[in-house]
Amino acid sequence: MTSTISTASSKVDLSVLYLGKDKPLEHKIRRYLGSRINLYLAAEDYETAIALYKQHAIDTIVADTAFLRGMPNCAIHQFRHLNDNVNIVLLNENHDIISSPFELPCLAQQQCPLKPVSFDKLSDLVMAGHNQSDENNIVNITSSAFFHSSVAMTISSHDNKIIAVNHAFTQITGFQEHEILGKNPRILSSGKHDKQFYEDMWAALSHDKKWNGEIWNKRKNGELFLEWITINAITNSAGDITHYCSIFADITERKAAEEAICRLTYNDPLTELPNRRAFMERLEEHLSHSKADQSLFAILFLDLDNFKDINDTLGHDIGDAVIKETALRLKTCIREDDLIARLGGDEFTVCLTNLNTVDDASTVAQKLLDAMTSPFILEEERLYFSFSIGIALFPVHGESTQELLKHADQAMYHAKFSGRNKFSFFDLSMEQHALTKTEIVKHLRNSIGSEQFSIHYQPIVNLKTGFIDKAESLLRWTHPELGNVTPDEFIPIAEDIGLICELGSWVFRQSASQVKAWQEKYIDSFQVSINISPKQFQNESCDLEEWTDFLSQQALSNTAISLEITEGVMMNEGPMTEQRLNMLKHAGIEISLDDFGTGYSSLAYLKKLNVDYLKIDRTFIQNIHLNLDDQAMCEAIVVMAHKLNIRVIAEGVENEAQLNFLKSIGCDYAQGYWFSKPLPSKDFELLLEKKGAFIH
């Protein structure tokens, strides 16, 4: 806080307070006025100015408008309220002089007429202002600064009749000066505000002598517009209100832009659902309420199964349509008080409040799953989708939003790894699983191509001849720190982090090289079956034509390889899937359809894609010697496949009774622990050498 005071013996009994931080200018003014007036003071901040103003009988304030911008709103009006007769001279940034008796902190160079810098002129204004009357103040109000301001301004009498408007007012409202003078400002009323709104405004003007806020008004042509208005009540020396001065700007477009920005900030533009930011803010509110009344609420984390395949194969337009349709379906499953949001991509969250029991969360989760069962019909594509849903409960599974979301996410991954299209509640074992996943991600990238990976082979036996005609190639990973990591653990992770193409190509080359050696050493028609991930099939970066080139380089017949695909490849079949399947078929590579019977098995797909083998899933085989339904199912699959010239392989054969039944229904091939577990290549060779690869 700084101030300077200068006094002088002068015939003019006048006190001046200068407000500003421009010290060179202040020194010039002090030299100019200090010898002509009785008292000269200067202040660099609002508090000092008020203190000096109250301590001394100030006649004139000389203020730099740049300085006023840093002072509280209505600062100048506060000075006038303390002394209605104070003369006020404002200097703009270029030190050009204007004069105004009311607050105009928004004045800038372009909003007032420019005048030559003249300290004589400043001195004249200070001296003349000493004897100005109230009538002279009104003249100053309607000065050039008033008329040329870029913000709309009006002056009204104490009985609320408009006595002056400026050019900006006529531009904004459409009313010309002669049409509005003498009228009550209510002529602009839009009708959107109730009686209480205006009563509160007039109460504030009466008590505080000021009011500001947003008002909807109406232009002459009937169009509504939103304005930000500041109204100051001007009082005389007795404290009576003599005039009202209003300053307003049309903020309709600005408000619309702000609302658009707000929508972008808090809403997902594709689905119109709340986005992550909005969800997190409202989640904090729900958490506070639940802590206060100890109520149960749940967070559901939803992730579309295999959604990335759609973007990769059918394009992002179809993907966006799927997301929009999904959002509409989800909205029908929750209450109005519940919260649903799209976090991004194919991830959604739902917050269920005021639950009575845990079963309430299960019920809603099942409704969400059921909402996805009907097909999505998009541009003649018939697509099926499902969710994997993780659920975390407050306060059972956490007491902070971060903890609850993390646990719901972990539960979602558990549901995904457990087969998808289901929901899982969080439990502590998932925390450890998440830590394990983090470790796998950390080591997987650096392990590809190293000796940590190996191929094991499980024999596939021809049930008519008893010979081992084929083998399934199975990837194994033994890490020095993690130990044996199962394919069920690392394959989905490799898919998620984009390593499945590199890993799949390595498996293909290793397996193709191995079958070449076995054909030369044992059986020239020997075949190895290689699993291919749907991610490999639907990812453009996975060049499957390189595989056929590699077979040519190895001088291998393409029939030496059979590729095993799952129904997931077929279900969301697109142009790329069909194109690649046709390319492989034309190259002579045989195709096996794995896990048949566990999903949306379709005869139309079998016919269209022309597969060579069906593999009956082990879930149908394990009780086939005891369960009549399983027997009927397996026999029907064999008969159907043979009618379509498709050979059948049964997985998971573990005893002689299962084997005998499969032989009785004409199944072509079988594999399982009854014959052998998957073996490293050297041990598999020993098996081939026994009795000429014949197994009874």
Automatic annotation (TrEMBL):
EAL domain location: 437-692
Pfam families: EAL, GGDEF, PAS_9
Occurrences of domain PAS (ranges): 134-184
The PAC domain, residue ranges: 211-263
Residue span, GGDEF domain: 295-428
Signal peptide region: none
PANTHER family: BIOFILM ARCHITECTURE MAINTENANCE PROTEIN MBAA (PTHR44757:SF2), DIGUANYLATE CYCLASE DGCP (PTHR44757)
Protein name per the record: Diguanylate cyclase
Native organism: Methylophaga marina
